[in-house]
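Entry type: protein chain
Record version: 2
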Amino acid sequence: QVQLVESGGGLVQAGGSLRLSCAASEPTFSTDGMGWFRRPPGKGREFVAALTWIGGWVEYADSVKGRFTISKNTAKNTVYLEMNNLRPEDTAVYYCAATAVYRGSYYLTREPGYGYWGQGTQVTVSS
C-alpha cells in the first residue's frame, strides 16, 4: 500500500512562510493528480490546492490565491506547498492527497477524487 509522507509543518508568526512536502513511499507509484487539503480547528476538511501530474493544470482555493503555490517534482514523486504571508486563519492540519485515476479536474478539488492520503502535518500561525 502506497503511503504519502508529509513534512514541513510547524509554528510560524503571521506574515511568515512555510514549505510543506509530500512524497509517495513507492518510487514507482503512478499518480494522475495530487492536492492539499486542510482541517482548521473545529471545522471540516477543506480544499487548498491541486495539480495534475501531467500538464500544467493547477487550482487554488480563493482563500489562498496569491499566497500559496503548489508545485511538483515528478522525478521524486513529490508535491510541495509553498505558503507565504501566512495568517492565523491558515492554522490547520494540512493533508496531502493523491489519485491514480484521473476523473477530471472537478474531482481534484474534492475529497472523493483521491484514494491516497497522508497522515497530516500541523501548521500553526500565531498573531
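Comment: The longest helix spans residues 105-108.
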